[in-house]
Design brief:
Helix content is about 40%, strand content about 20%.
Length: about 500
C-alpha cells in the first residue's frame, strides 16, 4: 500500500448525475458529491445527453470532494471510472464532441438492429457478441448515425463510451475496458477483444475505437490541463474502471460465481458472475465480460425501474414531496412508507414498467408502461405499490431466466437508490426466494471504480482481497412465505400481460 497517499477516487457517470466519492483504503467514504444534469428526449423513445454536462459535473464533483475532505490532489493515489453503459460519444479529429450522446435507454435503432441481423446473421451476432442486436447497445447507434447523419459520421475520428469520454478529458487517452466495451456489441466477448470479423462485415474502421484494457489496468495519468481544472495531481494514475453494473458488482463484492446483485437505479439490473461465458440464445438476458479478469457475467436490464418511480413521483406525488420537505427527508421515504400500508398485489392493480421500452427479458423497443386493473377505489398508495411491485416482478422474471440457464444464485445483494427501500428489499426476497442483503455503505459504481483503482495502484493484491477488506453487508431481508404465496398469482398475470399486449404495443407504435 502506498502510505504516502491517503485516498482513492471513484467517479460514477450516471444518467441523472455524476457521483464523485473520495474513499479511504478501507472503503470509508471521506467525501461525496453528486452533480445532476438533464436528459433530452427530442422524440418519443429517444434519449440523449450532452457529454460536456458529464465533464462539467465530474470537474465540479472532484473539486468539491477535495475541498470537503480538506486534502490535496497529491493525497489521491488513483482514479477509477464507472458509468452508464452503451452510450455513443462521437468526437472529431480534434477531440470535439460532434453530436449529443445517444444513451442506453434510446430506442430509435430498430431498423439498424435488423440491418445487423441481415448483414452478420442472427445466430452469428450472438456467437460473436454473446447477445442479439439491441436498440440500447452502441453498435446500432453507430449505424443509425451513419444512416441518418452521414455528415457527422464522416467527420467522426473517435467513438467512446460515456465514462471513457471522461477518461479522455482527464488523460488525453482514447481507452476503454472489457466490461463496458462488451456492451457496445462490437467485441468478441469470449476472447475479450474487438471482433475483426464483425467490424469488417458492418464496415466500421477499428481505428475509430479505443484501446482495450482489463478493468484494473492502468490506462493513463491525469494530464497537466486536467490537473489545473480539477485539482488532481498531474500524473495520478487512472485505471480502466468498469461499466456501471460491472463496477457495482465489485463495489458489492460480487466477484465470484454463485453470488449476484440486484441494483435499482434509473434502470434495474440483475447481475451474476460466471467462470465461463454462458449465453442465452433467445437473447432474454445479456452476457458480457466481467470486471474481474478471466470471468464473465450474465446480466439483465429493466429499462424503466427507478425511472418509473421517479415519473410517478414527479407526475402524481406533489403532496408527498411537500411532506418530505417539511420532514427533511427524501420524498421516496414518504412514498415507501405509504406503499408499505398496502397489501401485496396493490389491491388488484398491476404495473408494467415499460416506460422506456424494454430489454430483459423482452427485447422490445415498442412496449410501453401499463397500469392494469385501475379503479376509482385506488389511491396514490396503490399506484406507488404497483409501480414498485412491477419493477420487482420484472427482476423475478429475469432471475428465472438465469436459473433456467444454470447460473446459480444462492445469495443476493441489493444496491442502488432502490436498495435503500426496506419495502423493495423485502419484495425482492419474497419473489426471489432467497435472502437479500443491503450494504452498510452503498456507494455502488463509485466504490467499485475506486476498488479497481486501488488494485491498479497496488493498494490491494487482488480484487478478492480488496472486496474482503472493503465491502460490509448490512441488513438482510429473508423471504416471507405468506407474502411469496400472495405475490405468485399476480406475478403469473404480470407475465401473461406482456404476451397478450405485445401486438398492441406494435400497433400503437405505428399509429
Amino acid at each position: 500500500m502506498m502510505i504516502n497517499r491517503k485516498y482513492l477516487l471513484g467517479l460514477d457517470i450516471g444518467t441523472s448525475g455524476t457521483k464523485t466519492v473520495l474513499f479511504d483504503f478501507d472503503g470509508t467514504a471521506a467525501a461525496s458529491e453528486t452533480v445532476e444534469y438533464p436528459l433530452y428526449q427530442p422524440q418519443n423513445g429517444w434519449a440523449e445527453q450532452n457529454p460536456d454536462d458529464w465533464w462539467n459535473a465530474a470537474v465540479s464533483g472532484v473539486r468539491a470532494v477535495i475541498a470537503k475532505a480538506g486534502c490535496m490532489g497529491a493525497d489521491i493515489a488513483a482514479v477509477g471510472l464507472s458509468g452508464q453503459m452503451h452510450g455513443l460519444v462521437m468526437l472529431d479529429k480534434n477531440g470535439r464532441v460532434l453530436r449529443p450522446s445517444i444513451i442506453w435507454c434510446d430506442q430509435r435503432t430498430q431498423a439498424e438492429c435488423e440491418e445487423l441481423n441481415s448483414v452478420v446473421g442472427e445466430r452469428r451476432m450472438i456467437e460473436i457478441t454473446a447477445n442479439p442486436p439491441m436498440t440500447g447497445f452502441t453498435a446500432s447507434k453507430i449505424l443509425w448515425v451513419r444512416n441518418n447523419e452521414p455528415d457527422i459520421y464522416d467527420r467522426c475520428a473517435h467513438i467512446l463510451l460515456p465514462k471513457d469520454y471522461i477518461r479522455y478529458k482527464l488523460t488525453n487517452e482514447f481507452a476503454t475496458e472489457v466490461s463496458d466495451a462488451s456492451g457496445m456489441q462490437l467485441m468478441d466477448v469470449v476472447n475479450r477483444c474487438w471482433s475483426k470479423e464483425l467490424l469488417g462485415k458492418i464496415n466500421i474502421d477499428e481505428s475509430l475505437l479505443p484501446r482495450m484494457h482489463e478493468s484494473q489496468d492502468v490506462t493513463g495519468g491525469i494530464s497537466a490541463e486536467a490537473a489545473a481544472i480539477t485539482g488532481l495531481k498531474s500524473g495520478t494514475i487512472v485505471v480502466g474502471g468498469a461499466g456501471d453494473n460491472p463496477a457495482a458488482a465489485v463495489g458489492t463484492g460480487i466477484v465470484s460465481a454463485g453470488s449476484a446483485f440486484t441494483t435499482i437505479g434509473s434502470s434495474a439490473v440483475v447481475y451474476a458472475v460466471s467462470d465461463t461465458p454462458t449465453i442465452d440464445m433467445q437473447g432474454r438476458v445479456h452476457t458480457l465480460c466481467a470486471s474481474v479478469p478471466g470471468k464473465w457475467t450474465v446480466m439483465s436490464c429493466t429499462q424503466g425501474a427507478g425511472i418509473s418511480l421517479k415519473w410517478l413521483r414527479d407526475t402524481c406525488c406533489a403532496e408527498e414531496i411537500v411532506q418530505a420537505g417539511r420532514e427533511g427527508v427524501d420524498p421516496y421515504v414518504i412514498m415507501d412508507k405509504i406503499a408499505a400500508g398496502v397489501t401485496p398485489g396493490a389491491d388488484r392493480l398491476l404495473f408494467l414498467p415499460y416506460l422506456m421500452g424494454e430489454r430483459s427479458p423482452h427485447p422490445d423497443p415498442d412496449c410501453r408502461g401499463v397500469f392494469f386493473g385501475l379503479s376509482a377505489r385506488h389511491t396514490r398508495a396503490n399506484l406507488i405499490r404497483a409501480v414498485m411491485e412491477g419493477v420487482a416482478f420484472s427482476q423475478r422474471e429475469c432471475v428465472d431466466v438465469f436459473r433456467d440457464m444454470g447460473v446459480p444464485i444462492e445469495r443476493m445483494t441489493v444496491c442502488g437508490g432502490g436498495g435503500r427501500s426496506p419495502l423493495w428489499r423485502q419484495m425482492l426476497a419474497d419473489l426471489y426466494g432467497c435472502p437479500v442483503s443491503s450494504l452498510r455503505a452503498d456507494e455502488g459504481g463509485a466504490l467499485g471504480a475506486a476498488i479497481l483503482a486501488g488494485v491498479g495502484a497496488g493498494a490491494y493484491a487482488s480484487l478478492g482481497e480488496a472486496c474482503a477488506a472493503v465491502v460490509r453487508p448490512d441488513v438482510t431481508a429473508v423471504p416471507d412465505e405468506a407474502a411469496a404465496r400472495a405475490y405468485e398469482p399476480y406475478f403469473e398475470m404480470y407475465k401473461r400481460l406482456y404476451v397478450r399486449l405485445r401486438d398492441e404495443f406494435k400497433a400503437l407504435a405505428h399509429m
